[in-house]
Specification:
The complex is a heterotrimer.
Chain A (H helix, E strand, L loop, with lengths): L2 H22 L3 H21 L3 H26 L12 H32 L11 H11 L2 H23 L10
Helix pairs in contact in A: 1-2, 2-3
Chain B lengths: L4 H36 L15 H11 L10 H19 L8 E3 L2 E3 L2 E3 L2 E3 L9 H10 L1 H11 L3 H24 L1 H7 L4 H7 L5 E4 L2 E4 L14 H14 L11 H4 L9 H26 L10 H10 L4 H31 L7 H31 L1
Antiparallel strand pairs in B: 1-4, 2-3, 5-6
Chain C lengths: L3 H5 L3 H21 L3 H25 L4 H31 L13
Helix pairs in contact in C: 2-3, 3-4
The chains are: A mainly alpha, B mainly alpha, C mainly alpha.
């Protein structure tokens, strides 16, 4: 087994294990920590795919900021009693599981079926990579995708205002009736 | 890792050496901190065990190792024991990415019936193209150790300290990240080695097609002359990131006993200590690299020094290694100066109040960092046009 | 279908299948869990799975636009987490629990 293949299987094990723990752990704090683990694994997978800058950003944004927020909120709440971690109903639960399984099966089947086709498509090299990939990324982002970039800036502003407004409210979404 | 068995071995040994160097620096820093604080406060400090109290470190280590391994009754044991271990990981991973000297190149040689090399060994744990992004990302993981320790201890002082500390760390991460955007734009790279390359030689830059150079050639081409605001912001944010005074709200003794490590003792406490000093070392190393020319020696470039050493009558190979050693010493001098500043500040400034801390982070440092970024961008655009 | 080649030759389909598995796990989390925070985390997991497939396609097509899409997804995920957590905090302040069924009071 080559080093690349070993690395992939190792990281796949980590990410799938972490993701399973996220949905299986009853205590949400453990779920959050498992998700951090998964995200670091995904960042490492990005590195194996030569996307170094995105991997770094993944760790900074997800593991370093978003998940810290989650963990902090969970620790602030300090949920004493998690009465029902999972939704009730065996039949509905089974249907939900089956739906997710079906989706996974469909996607994987499609990938298996089309993998030969994909392999032939990818042989044509688009835009041969030259120079610093991070520089290329920046050039592309601020020329081709400048509109999306600006729109995201506006979205972030709206979200920041909205989040502050929501968090400052005294509790509940409307005050007068229950 | 490397082409053949020799290169892989040396690279692995290098990683272990850098880790050991970091861990071994901690007792020396503790000694320096205690002696330094005593010096500042007109006391003696530890001066009984060995010459100048230097063997105090060993005595401390024995004390830490032989203390009872204690966990509180209400603690979540898995997190309580995992937190100190994870406290070491971000600091060591990040520190290994900082270059500490010029790369050592070894020409091909014959041994054991086959040709080895040529090799190029870098005096750093690993060379990463997006060095800064990696270091920022990895060191931002330190927030989890604090949260795990705080929540796992099952004590309200610990939890309050942890929440404060992690809020502080993620607030100041913004200012820290933005303060070095100016540097990144100026050098046009994320790579720390390339940044150091750009800071070699005497002070000079080109603007509007003219080259502006200093008349004396001992003024180095360091980043601080181009990014003074960036340096001040970076250094202040680095204090907050490493949870040291004047930003050590996490462990404000008067309010929170000892913050997130209230319930820790003995060796586990020591590991948090190593983590904290590790963050200090990363901050010192990064400040050196970004703003003070890294391992560069003022007044002489690496190539010139190589020529000088060859002129002394050494072979190229030996000269290369000597060159690297000299640069390594230079790096350590700068590094030590920054560490001393960290210690001096700790024993000079009083602690901030929590609202003052947040005000400083969000209302002062973040806008200044943004302004610095925009100003740098405009200047680069105008000057390079 | 599973043979030695499948284990040794890691290619585009491996990454895509991994991404699909992660996505499905996230979906199961959203469907089965009652805790709103865990549901949000599962959504983050699904977004991450999508990011992985974007990067995979970016690499195997030698085209950098996939990585740019990842930035956009990350931004949206961060925004979504901020708003979601703000909502959850405001629900928690009122009901002292973050069960998803309290979110039905959001109407009006």
């Amino acid at each position: 087994m080559t080093a690349d293949a070993f690395l992939f299987w190792f990281l796949a094990l980590i990410t799938i294990g972490g993701a399973s723990l996220v949905i299986l752990m009853k205590n949400p704090i453990y779920s959050a920590l498992a998700l951090v683990f998964t995200m670091c694994g995904i960042a490492a997978l990005f590195v194996t795919l030569d996307a170094f800058f995105v991997a770094g950003v993944q760790i900074i944004v997800y593991a370093g900021a978003v998940m810290v927020l989650f963990v902090m909120v969970l620790m602030l709440f300090d949920l004493k009693h998690e009465v029902e971690a999972f939704s009730k109903g065996r039949i509905t639960g089974a249907i939900k599981l089956a739906t997710a399984g079906l989706l996974a099966g469909l996607v994987m089947g499609a990938i298996f079926y089309s993998s030969t086709a994909v392999d032939t498509v990818i042989t044509k090299q688009l835009a041969a990579a030259s120079g610093d990939p991070s520089k290329q990324l920046g050039m592309r982002l601020f020329t081709q995708h400048i509109f999306a970039f600006e729109a995201l800036g506006i979205l972030l502003l709206v979200v920041a205002v909205g989040a502050v407004a929501l968090a400052r409210s005294k509790g509940g979404t409307h005050h007068d009736q229950r | 890792m490397g082409q053949d068995i020799l290169e892989i071995t040396i690279n692995s040994v290098k990683l272990i050496l850098i880790f050991l160097m970091m861990v071994q620096a901690v007792p020396i820093l503790v000694w320096l901190e205690r002696r330094g604080s005593a010096f500042i406060q007109n006391r003696f400090g530890p001066n009984r065990v060995g010459p100048l109290g230097l063997v105090q470190l060993l005595a401390d280590a024995v004390k830490f190792l032989t203390k009872e391994d204690f966990a509180p009754d209400k603690a979540v044991r898995s997190l309580f024991y995992a937190a100190p271990v994870f406290a070491l990981i971000p600091a060591t991973l990040a520190y290994a990415a900082i270059p500490m000297s010029t790369p050592i190149s070894i020409a091909a040689f014959e041994a054991f019936g086959s040709t080895w090399g040529p090799y190029l060994f870098r005096v750093q744990g690993y060379e990463i193209g997006v060095g800064i992004v990696f270091i920022l990302g990895v060191s931002s993981l330190a927030a989890y150790t604090i949260l795990m320790a705080g929540w796992g201890s099952g004590s309200k002082f610990s939890l309050l300290g942890a929440l404060r500390a992690s809020a502080q760390v993620i607030s100041y991460e913004l200012a820290l990240g933005l303060s070095i955007v100016g540097v990144i734009m100026m050098y046009g790279t994320f790579n720390l080695s390339e940044m150091i390359q750009a800071q070699q030689g005497p002070f000079q830059f080109s603007a509007f097609g003219y080259t502006i150079a200093s008349t004396v050639d001992w003024i180095p081409n360091w980043g601080i002359f181009y990014q003074p605001i960036g340096f001040i912001l970076f250094f202040a944010a680095a204090f907050a990131e490493s949870n040291r005074l004047p930003f050590d709200l996490a462990e404000g003794e008067a309010e929170l006993v000892a913050g997130f490590h209230t319930e820790y003792g003995g060796f586990k406490m020591l590991m948090f200590f190593i983590g904290e000093y590790g963050h200090m070392m990363i901050a010192a190393g990064l400040a050196t690299t970004f703003f003070f020319g890294g391992y560069g020696i003022p007044g002489i470039t690496a190539q010139e020094l190589q020529q000088v050493i060859v002129g002394w009558g050494y072979a190229d190979q030996t000269a290369n290694i000597l060159n690297a050693v000299l640069h390594f010493l230079m790096y350590n001098v700068k590094f030590a100066i920054f560490l001393w500043i960290f210690i001096h500040v700790r024993w000079t400034l009083p602690r901030f109040r929590y609202d003052q801390l947040m005000d400083l982070g969000w209302k002062t440092m973040l806008p200044w960092a943004l302004a610095n970024t925009i100003l740098t961008a405009i200047v680069i655009y105008v000057v390079a046009a | 279908m599973i043979n030695a080649d499948f284990i040794v030759d890691v290619g585009i389909s491996h990454y895509l299948i991994l991404s699909a598995i992660l996505f499905s796990l996230g979906m199961i989390g959203v469907l089965l869990r009652k805790n709103a925070i865990v549901m949000l985390m599962s959504i983050e997991l699904m977004l991450n799975a999508v990011n992985l497939s974007f990067i995979t396609f970016s690499k195997y097509n030698s085209h950098i636009d996939g990585q740019i899409m990842v930035f956009f997804v990350m931004t949206i995920a961060a925004a979504e987490a901020a708003v979601g957590l703000a909502l959850i905090v405001s629900i928690f302040k009122r009901y002292k629990e973050v069960n998803i069924r309290f979110f039905e009071h959001l109407k009006g």
